[in-house]
């Protein structure tokens, strides 16, 4: 009887942990802003194999470059667990402000407020670092996130990418997402995802489409729930 109760508790906890998998529904943000540009993006990420097989996130986002330094946006995130209907997880607003350059590196600050539909609201801040030239685009996001509920700790994580231009409309590289720890316990056994990503543009349509696709392999504690993460995003600019 005891083993049945323990198993039921684990099954109840697993989907929530899987939905919080690093990178799921997220992107590696750049530190520069394109002024007076409206961008619409749809992102679909899905965990593959393991106990969390089939857990996915659909994120819809719209953002606008107000000027050379400020970009504001709004988003909605919709999650689905296997055998259950898709549900709205959160809605939010975000802003990126370009702070300047340190040598060849652009530096920006990111802020987000998310309204939780099934839980507490949340705040998220990021330091965005980017170096970009004609061949390479290197990005690192250092993230701090806190749920606005009593007793919740600040959670720290990272997102990173290195993309190389392989043609006029094609880039290929690596992305990585992972946990760093919390304000109470840094550098514990954490979840990480790393893998190849390709990004290309489709021309000849009324608006140029940018498509990103990739697969990230689970490392560390992430292997307890899944073998990896399938990623696909489509964006259009106006």
Structure overview:
The protein is mainly beta. Helices cover 8% and strands 61% of the residues. It has one helix spanning 2-19; strands at 38-48, 56-65, 70-80, 87-102, 105-116, 122-132, 136-147, 155-167, 170-182, 185-186, 191-202, 209-220, 228-237. The radius of gyration is 18 Å and the shape is globular. The N and C termini lie far apart (60 Å). The model is unreliable at 1-15 (pLDDT under 50).
Ranges with pLDDT <50 over ≥5 residues? 1-15
Instruction: Record the strand order, biggest sheet.
Output: 1-2-3-4-5-6-7-8-9-11-12-13
* Number of beta-strand segments: 13
Name of the top-level CATH class: Mainly Beta
Helix vs. strand class: mainly beta
Gross CATH architecture: Beta Barrel
Write down the domain tally.
Answer: 1
How many whole angstroms does the radius of gyration measure?
18 Å
Along the chain, the helix and strand elements come as HEEEEEEEEEEEEE
Q: What is the straight-line distance between the termini? A: 60 Å
Main sheet overview: 12 strands, antiparallel, barrel
Give the strand content: over 45%
Oligomer type: single chain
Report helical residue fraction: under 10%
Shape: globular
Number of H- or I-type helical stretches: 1
CATH topology: Porin
Average pLDDT level: 91
